[in-house]
Design brief:
Blueprint (H helix, E strand, L loop, with lengths): L3 E9 L5 E10 L4 E5 L6 H9 L6 E6 L2 E2 L10 E4 L11 H11 L4 H15 L14 H13 L5 E5 L7 H18 L2 E6 L2 H7 L2 E6 L2 E6 L1 H6 L4 H6 L6 E10 L2 E6 L2 E4 L5 H4 L6 E6 L14 E12 L4 E7 L4 E6 L10 E6 L5 E4 L10
Parallel strand pairs: 3-8, 3-9, 6-7, 7-8
Antiparallel strand pairs: 1-2, 1-4, 4-5, 9-10, 11-12, 11-14, 12-13, 14-19, 15-16, 15-18, 16-17
Length: 367
Amino acid sequence: MAEVVLEKVCKRYEGGSLAVDRFSLVIRNGEFLVLVGPSGCGKSTTLRMIAGLEEISSGSISIGGRCVNAVPPKDRDIAMVFQNYALYPHMTVFENMAFGLKLRHVPRREIAERVNEASSILGLDSLLQRLPKQLSGGQRQRVAVGRAIVRKPKVFLFDEPLSNLDAKMRVEMRGELSRLHRKLGATMVYVTHDQVEAMTMGDRIVVMSGGTIQQVAAPLEVYQRPANLFVAGFIGTPPMNVVRGRLGRSDGGLVFRFGAGAVPVPEPWHPALEPFLERDLAMGVRPEALGGEGGAAPEASFSGTVDVVEPMGSETYVQLVGASGDRWVARVHPERVFTPGAAVALPMDLSQVRFFDGASGAAIVRD
């Protein structure tokens, strides 16, 4: 286990393309940290720089208090699990897990002990003599993880390890990796584009875009209090509904006007929003805050026409189109019936609204 510290790390490719820009972060000892973002945001490049597979253009990376800028990957005391498993097809499960230890001239008896310990943790005892072609995708992924475990590294690095698995197997492997982290207490850095993986597995998540950090926080904090409009639109399935408008006064209070609608601003927001009077703002509302099922007395509603109804079993997503063309999504109880083309007015739980600066996109923080 070890703390990983990145200080103003940049990666610039030939031709001037900037993949990662001044990335600074402390990954705590024993933490499960998830880097999440869309394709091309720099998350895998950041992971590869920690591993030493990509040279950094500037800045510094430390692992366990030692600067590793000039340290080759094999000497960084890290283990990496790749998306494609990278197993040797002609070797058995045991041989695949033991191979790295043999290269380091670890005694044969210790190799057997480490492999057997890892296979027991991962439920691979009955598969040790099989070849990779005789395994399912989930079993191959467990072998790849086991190969990392036997190394007993300071830091585990995972580069989208579940993306090749089917939906059911991804759910199972998420649980296995979370249990593994609790059992080992190891420092783990995990890269994914799947926000469900990020929300369910990470102690903290790092949302990235354009090579920069947009927000670092616990999953629930990121979901409930996104730092900016990018995070609000990226985290959440479906994402937060966002509508742009202006802030004004009405009957001694504040009102947010958008398109053909208007929403009274809850009083706790007044001190933070007073400086934004008559300025462009954006308001964000999570899908579950529409429909009057949150338990709070509704003070406003969103009126629109039902466009698409998506039954999901435990819940239903209803896509609405407002009078000014705004598209909103509500998450409602599955027994409620909505008909495409019908006009509806869904109550809005104003205790869950968030406001953002219309110019910068930054979240406005309420005291």
